[in-house]
Amino acid sequence: MDTLIPEICRLLNDTLSPEKAALASATDGLDRLSRFPHFPLSLLAVATGGDSQGLRLAAAAYLKNFVRSCMDDDPQSLELQRFRNQLAQALLQAEPAVLKVLVEVFRLIVVKNFVKENTWPELVPDLTLVIQRSNLIIQNKNAQWSTLNALTVLQTILRPFQYFLNPKVRNESVPVQLEIIAKDILVPLQATFHDFVNKTLSFQDQEQSKLEEIILIICKCMYFSVRSYMPSALGPILPSFCHDLFRILDSLSLDGASDDGSLLRLKIAKRGLVIFSALVTRHRKHVDRLIPSVVDCAFKIAKQSGNTCSSKTVKVMQNLDCISERIISLAFDVISHILESGPGWRVVSPHFSSLLDNAIFPALVLNQKDTLEWDEDAEEYIRKNLPSDIDEISGWAEDLFTARKSAINLLGVIATSKFEYVYLVNLLSQLEGTVYLQGPRIATATTKRKKADKSKGKQQESSIGELLVIPFLSKFPMPYHGDKASSKIVHNYYGVLMAYGGLQDFLRERNSEYTTTLVRNRVLPLYSSCPFVPYLVATANWIVGELASCLPQAMSSDVYDSLIKALTMPDINGINCYPVRASAAGAIIRLLENEYVPPDWLSVLQVVVNQIANGEKNESSFLFHLLGTAVEAGQDIISAHIPMLISSVVGAIVNHIPPIPDPWPQVVERGFAALATITKSWEASSAGEALEHDDRKWESSQAVVARTFATLLYQAWAVSVQSIDSADRSTSPPPSCLDDTSTLLGLILKFATKMNEIEELKIPELLAVWSDLISDWHGWEEMEDLAVFDCIQEAVNLQRRCDSTNFLLKRISSRVSPGVDQSIIEGVSAFVTKGIMAYPSATWRACSCVHELLHVPSFSFQMQGVKQSIIASFTRAAFSHFKDLRNKPNGLWKPLLLVISSCYILCPEIVEQVLDQDEDNGFMIVACGLAHVSSRSFGPGISSMSEIKLAVITLEKFVERLVAFPLEDGNKVLQDCLVSLMEAFLHLKEVEEKEAEESDSEDIDDEYSDEEISDNEDSEDDDLEETQEDFLDRYAKAADELSEIVGGDIEDGVQDLQLGPVDEIDVREQILSLIRRHHQVLLKGQALSSGLIQQILDAFPECTPLLQVHRQSQPGHS
User: Fold this and answer.
1) Where is the Importin N-terminal domain positioned along the sequence (predicted)?
2) What are phi and psi of 813, to 5 degrees?
3) Average pLDDT over residues 978-1005
């Protein structure tokens, strides 16, 4: 081992060199040394004892990658026993920077050896001794072991246990390893935890940060232990542990007066609240007696929500603002979780009024931080306060958990909570007199009871929302024209609006009149009374969107008039009104998605189109999204106007396309996405109308749209289109929006039916650029890839309609490989080849495309090289993917093997050359696999007529090949292929007969099935309530199903393959000829069963003398 260390040090130092040659040489040298058995131990020695920190970090990083790549190999290749023990010892003494990297190495081994396999029994006892003898535990600075490092190791061991190890098992028991850790380490640590908390709260010195770091790690260890499971040893120590957390949380001050030294304390507080949430939601029976203390603690923190908004906090505490916000947010969440249980409701309900006054509402009101974010970062303001589906969530996850969001959620939980009559007196004592909403009367529980007293034996319930929340909010008056944005009345009403936005569940339980009155009296007047306070208008927009599922259709005219007014609102007195316009667009989208349609579609669309034409780039982005949603929602009503809309959208997109082909800006991408959505909706609605009415107007509209799209794509890809015939490919369009541009190109291809249309729309030029772009595609995502596959199908269909053009074979200069010409079909085939190797559904689609591409174009003699190259690529990809899956039969076997079959029928020599490159005899692997898939016992096997026919033809050729050129150990494969060939041929005859029978009975009346469906629907009304056992069972089954998706069984459907000239082959004659020529060899074994022989005799009576001899030779035949 010592002999490797100097060389490893030299090579690692070379990896830090800026010279590429030295870096490449060092990488190759390390790869060479990695074959030695002592290599990981030598790396570990360098990581802990290297001359410089840079060298130590480089060794630790290389060790992490090396161990990750070797985890699935034979454990002895790493000398596992010795290595893992030395790694654990190194962790206990490593410096912090190196420790952070080595912990990742340790985690890989712990998950495999300790958590999953439980083959490291000495780990916990050894770690227990180390912790007991570490420096801070025995209070000796010169101790051998570091407490911080030892607890970091413990945290790494416990981290995997935060999730259920086997989610498929209902009521999974606590793992034995976790029980041991809890009993031997966590329980004894409680005394240390209590002592360290006392010291931290009593005085401040240089040791405080070390102690707080230890406290934080212990909190993390406890959280990982109880997040899913509850070890039996932890139950008795929970009260003591939680009381220490209460003391830490009570010591917090979030008024902005803290400094950087309080960061660890804040992290401890945050972790403590997360622990409370886990205990309350997962293990309530263990903490029932602690609930009142938890509520008091969370309430004290929640009341500080106003403090985080002070000017001092905004200006001075930017680095702590996020975690302070998160702490208050968690405090609200803890109260919400407690409130959802019966005992918790009884504890929290007496505090409802105080919660509203002192915690929830102060977190909702407008504050200086809001106005600063509005002015300096409008997108951030919208993301935090007016979230919608327009923009994808980005940025730090912690930023999304604001105190305001959690307060709104808690308010919603309070509003929908029900109370029984026995608690009514206590709750009414918190209110003074009877309160009313400005509009609908808010009935007390007594009046509600008189109205709904239908069952005297049942206790009556009422909602806290109508008793307390709505009356509380109604006491804040609505601002009017004279009120400035900085006034208290505006700030408070902002909080009222935020509160309304969280009451959708409560309002959904009320009648439509209640919601109508609330929105008419407290929301919609803001659009006319406070147009100069954009903060309120933007929030009103958001509320309307949040209440989309509660709004009655009768007030749609007023709602849409208000939102359109906001959508077109200009900037006011130097205040940017972008959030107003963006939130209005988001609200309209929410309304449309909830089928809340406008009374006048055209006026809404016209406003949106005008805004797109006149708006800025960032606003056009969300307007494009809005337009696409509107067209999708109203496609049947506005389909006749879509060509005009498309023309306007195309004009706006062209204005934003940059002259230099850099990545397109977001506005262009959103524009293409809107066009794709509009196109799909238009085709879905208008095509049906054209078929129903034989409307020539549809064809005319399609021609206009196709020309518009062709012009747009030509301009978007102008640089490449113009340089197709030139050698200069230094500039090219970016691979942006390939899914959406493929949708547009697909419509162009679908429209073209004549030669002049192909030339007029410049289809060969557009396809040339498009095929070049997709040939270099790497971002495989199902929703994006689907449009590309659909466009390939449309290109194939066009080639069939206009076969004489053979445009798929047009050669262009490749953008991917400058100076090399390639045809359109080569670019498309490169994409399909990668698709064969991608995720399961892409593999299915790509394999289907292979059969289309192989048989559509007419390859000339000069293009035979292209044909052979494509076939070799398809075969190589399909065989590689099949070989990866061959040890686990699944649904992907069929499409992969049928691709190889199609290739083999066309170019058997090329396919055999590819298969012969495999050291395990690729031909035998494929032949055995196809025989297995074609067998009637394989499921899901071949089933459509084209699939069976392709398999039969290929198996016949495989049998011919194995008879003519016998291979070592090939006799078994030959017999399997022969049996599967005969079974598949008989299967083909059955399918042909079945399809013939079905074609003769297409006019059968199906009224009976309709009645049966109706009966089934009626029987679904009596669904039983799901019990907890049913819930756990359902989720266990769901976990089991999710684990099977990776096998490729998600698309085990029937494929109707395009076989081209192969479809004309007379299968029966080929098999008959095979039997006649090679019956002596084929029938020499005992592969054919007696039943199969009889079926073959029925299918081939001409072979009766040959097969009878074989049948009589079988044992047991009389």
Assistant:
1) 26-93
2) -85, 125
3) 77
